[in-house]
Amino acid sequence: MTTERIAEFFRTRRPDGPCLVVDREVVRDNYTAFRRALPNSDIFYAVKANPAPQILELLAGLGSNFDCASVAEIEMALEAGATPDRISFGNTIKKERDIARAHALGVNLFAVDCHEEVEKISRAAPGARVFCRVLTDGEGAEWPLSRKFGCVPAMAVDVLVYAHQLGLASYGVSFHVGSQMTKVEAWDAALSDAKRVFAQLAKQGIHLQMVNMGGGFPTKYLRDVPTAEAYGQAIFAALSRHFGNQLPRTIIEPGRGMVGNAGVIKSEVVLISKKSDDDKHRWVFLDIGKFGGLAETMDEAIRYPIRTERDDDEMEPCVLAGPTCDSADVMYEKNMYPLPISLTIGDEVLIEGTGAYTTTYASVAFNGFEPLKSYVI
């Protein structure tokens, strides 16, 4: 949402071109909500959601850990004040030299999902702790993360046995129910799978210690979403149901849920047109699109709240598109977006809920447009 602090920034600063403004106080509130909702789980902020130094420094100061997808993100977390023991190299696809670099920096917790990744870690980070990612179906997620990452539970058992044989510490399992998961019960089946992996390893004398329950916690776009407390209650109930009194260490990796609602993008209407005299729908072109940071509108998956100063006027559905010379740069066409009939060229629009997965998705210079500017206040 547009907080008063963000609104004041736009009133006084008037930056030229599209820009993102993130309110740190909203991030602080979100961290506190996760801490209260799952007090016995360690928070590992997903750095990829928004790696702005001011956000990382705030979270480091609050005691957060960090889920990193690359050596560059690991270095960002360290620069922000995190110690290596508060960092997980959570990407299952890593170059061996990057594993070695992370290990040299003191990182000792790595994600795997196959035998080949285990072999790389055993060579580049001997003795390190590893956790194996298990596939989930992602049903109910608006931005699924299945197929590319993880393996079936039976294979996870084999991978962790292999890691143990190669001298690594088989530490636990992980899963990700899918980004923007709106079903609080989604963690139940995944925790059931995790418990089965724990049980199978125990039979072979390998005692896992940790379940990384991933991210997936949503932010509010056009529809209301459950509270952090509701997710916490459902997840704790599922943990108790499957693990009984022997609860493992648990980790959560909020990204979108930590910073999504803290950011607002200011954009401008560049053009409003029709494709024929009898076209029933207007095309509204903004100065930002898929290549400027709104990549998650791909397949119209994420529908952002869009506000204008004319929202009290009559609305009609429009095709919403970006400014680049690429036909893929259309955000909403199958499910058109209602905008004021009175909207005109040069009007300012605010795109809310854009604190996550925008700045780092923006192209460097596609069509000569500069990367999305970002301000953290």
TrEMBL record:
Reaction(s) this enzyme catalyzes, per UniProt: L-ornithine + H(+) = putrescine + CO2
Pathway terms, separated by semicolons: Amine and polyamine biosynthesis; putrescine biosynthesis via L-ornithine pathway; putrescine from L-ornithine: step 1/1
GO cellular component: cytoplasm
Domain Orn/DAP/Arg decarboxylase 2 N-terminal: start-end pairs: 27-259
Residue(s) carrying N6-(pyridoxal phosphate)lysine: K48
Keywords: Lyase, Pyridoxal phosphate
One of the record's GO molecular function terms: ornithine decarboxylase activity
Biological process annotations from GO: putrescine biosynthetic process from arginine, via ornithine
EC code: 4.1.1.17
Cofactor: pyridoxal 5'-phosphate
Catalytic residue list: C325 (proton donor)
SUPFAM superfamilies: Alanine racemase C-terminal domain-like, PLP-binding barrel
One Pfam family, short name: Orn_Arg_deC_N
Family recorded in the similarity comment: Belongs to the Orn/Lys/Arg decarboxylase class-II family.
Protein name from the UniProt record: ornithine decarboxylase
Native organism: Martelella mediterranea DSM 17316
